[in-house]
């Protein structure tokens, strides 16, 4: 399955069904992050019920230092 | 007490979280400053580096209110998107509208700032727009319903201090919502000056994070803001052209 994450192509061999599983595969489980899936911003509780399919476009963002 | 929307704060210092030498120094600086409001930016995560540390993991989240900014936005629509991303984190108490209109000066785009403020207010956010020191624009932002007005003292990160105290005073006098002087503060005297002008608070970042000793500077800023506020409340004396002796003129003992 190929995904576009943060503007970069990512080929995934693992079987990933939803956003929650994708975050686990990426090793980001404990991170405070925000996911936008095909231009739709997801709440954390939506991660486990949002399906991931080939060609999906994702933005994974977080808080960084700023003024 | 500083009241912004539904929130109340003892501290009148709002602190940015960018450009500290390391997280330990930053954590100490934040604690010493006694700030209750921290700003953040929203950025893409490096998904190939799961171990990357984040400052949010270092602090007690219950102790602070979060004021993410929309930095990076070039127009109102981008600002709204960033605000919604920040909101989805569950750590967005208020939003700082920051729409930059000029890369060299980092001055805000007044038209897009106004639009973004209006759109975010409609979405139900507690909105604090970072704006220039334009008096009419500040009034229009307040008329839209902005929960505080945040005029810059001088360009972001420039450390030039307050370059137009007259405009800031006009903005403060006309406002019925808090005025937070944001950006350009260089030293404790700048922060104290802003408070003496009647500002309700000061938002700063580089002045602390870029100082030789950020922890000491955080304390200095805390004290300067408290001193400036006390001075404002106490009411400074008027300026006279000539001297006025503090000691009585009568009873001076002289050898005749």
List the helices and strands and how they pair.
The complex is a heterodimer of chains A (67) and B (256).
Chain A (H helix, E strand, L loop, with lengths): L1 E4 L2 E4 L7 H7 L8 E4 L2 E2 L15 E9 L2
Parallel strand pairs in A: 1-5
Antiparallel strand pairs in A: 1-2, 3-4, 3-5
Chain B lengths: L1 E3 L2 E3 L3 E3 L7 H11 L3 E8 L20 E4 L7 H13 L6 E3 L12 H13 L4 E5 L3 H10 L5 E2 L13 H10 L5 E3 L5 H9 L4 E4 L1 H4 L4 H21 L22
Parallel strand pairs in B: 3-4, 3-10, 4-5, 6-7, 7-8, 9-10
Antiparallel strand pairs in B: 1-2
Helix pairs in contact in B: 1-8, 2-3, 3-4, 4-5, 6-8
Query: How many helices of chain A does DSSP assign?
Result: 1
How would you describe the oligomerization state of the chains in this entry?
heterodimer
Strand order of the largest sheet of chain B: 5-4-3-10-9
Can you say what the CATH homologous superfamily of chain A is? Beta-grasp domain
* Shape summary of chain B: globular
CATH T-level fold name of chain A: Ubiquitin-like (UB roll)
The Cα radius of gyration of chain B reads: 20 Å
- Rounded average pLDDT of chain B: 96
Domain Thiazole synthase ThiG (chain B): 3-248
Keywords (chain B): Cytoplasm, Schiff base, Thiamine biosynthesis, Transferase
InterPro entries (chain B): Aldolase_TIM, Thiazole_synthase_ThiG, ThiG
EC number (chain B): 2.8.1.10
């Amino acid at each position: 399955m190929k995904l576009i994450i943060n503007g970069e192509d990512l080929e995934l061999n693992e079987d990933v069904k939803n956003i929650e599983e994708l975050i686990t595969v990426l090793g980001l489980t404990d991170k405070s992050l925000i996911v936008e899936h095909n231009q739709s911003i997801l709440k954390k509780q939506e991660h486990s019920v949002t399906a991931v399919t080939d060609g999906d476009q994702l933005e994974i963002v977080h808080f960084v230092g700023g003024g | 007490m500083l009241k912004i929307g539904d929130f109340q704060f003892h501290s009148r210092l709002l602190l940015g979280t960018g450009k500290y030498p390391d997280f330990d120094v930053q954590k100490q600086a934040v604690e010493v400053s006694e700030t209750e409001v921290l700003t953040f930016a929203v950025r893409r995560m490096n998904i190939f580096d799961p171990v990357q540390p984040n400052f949010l993991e270092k602090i007690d989240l219950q102790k602070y209110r979060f004021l993410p900014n929309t930095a990076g936005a070039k127009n109102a629509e981008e600002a709204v998107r960033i605000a919604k991303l920040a909101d989805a984190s569950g750590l967005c108490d208020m939003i700082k509208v920051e729409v930059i209109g000029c890369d060299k000066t980092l001055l805000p785009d007044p038209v897009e700032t106004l639009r973004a403020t209006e759109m975010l207010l409609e979405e139900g956010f507690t909105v604090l727009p970072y704006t220039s020191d334009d008096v009419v624009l500040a009034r229009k932002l307040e008329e839209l319903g902005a929960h505080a007005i945040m005029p810059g003292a001088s360009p972001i990160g420039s450390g030039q201090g307050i370059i137009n105290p007259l405009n800031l005073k006009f903005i403060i006098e006309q406002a019925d919502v808090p005025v937070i002087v944001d950006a350009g503060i260089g030293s404790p005297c700048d922060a104290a000056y802003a408070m003496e002008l009647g500002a309700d608070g000061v938002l700063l970042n580089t002045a602390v994070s870029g100082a030789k000793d950020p922890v000491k500077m955080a304390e200095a800023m805390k004290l300067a803001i408290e001193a400036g506020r006390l001075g404002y409340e106490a009411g400074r004396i008027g300026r006279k052209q000539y001297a006025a002796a503090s000691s009585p003129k009568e009873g001076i003992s002289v050898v005749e």
